[in-house]
Amino acid sequence: MVSVFDIPGDKLISSLKEELKKIPQVKPPEWSKFVKTSCAKVKPPENDEFWYIRTASILRQLYIRGKPTGVQRLRTKYGSKKEKGAKPASFQRAGGSIIREILQQLDAAGLTKKVTESGRKGRAITPKGKSLLDKQAAKISRESKK
Predict the structure, then answer these.
(1) How many domains is the chain built from?
(2) pLDDT per residue over 123-134, tens digit each?
(3) H helices of the chain, where?
(4) Which CATH number belongs to the domain containing residue 51 in this structure?
(5) What is the pLDDT of residue 42?
(6) CA dihedral defined by 90, 104, 27, 11, rounded to 10 degrees?
(7) How far apart are CA 125 and CA 4, in angstroms?
(8) Which residues form the domain of 128?
(9) Prediction pTM value
(10) Which residue in 139, 4, 1, 8 sits closest to 62, CA to CA?
């Protein structure tokens, strides 16, 4: 059986993005068009589908990590280097508001849930979320064999 680990991330995310558009709970808020994703960025994202791409990527990360993952760890994952002119560039975490809003939407859709396991608090993927990702992986695998 094909799983998320067998499929390239970019193909899975682009396929999952289209499925997430069909879920009514996952919608970009009005402010998402104007906000930067990190203090290290100069401009907001120019891609109109940024919200769905980031949502698919976060869902994939929760699947891969397999244990409760919080906003702070995801901020570190999506962070980048900030240019400081003549000074050396330094790492800056991504903004937490976008990640938090996406996790809340995924909770409302039933794809993730808040959990506490052995002292770790965060979000974990639900069986419904795993099923969605596995179905997308199988679909991509069938299409690539043709």
Answers:
(1) 1
(2) 999 999 999 999
(3) 9-21, 50-65, 71-77, 96-109, 127-145
(4) 1.10.10.10
(5) 83
(6) 60
(7) 13
(8) 4-145
(9) 0.91
(10) 4
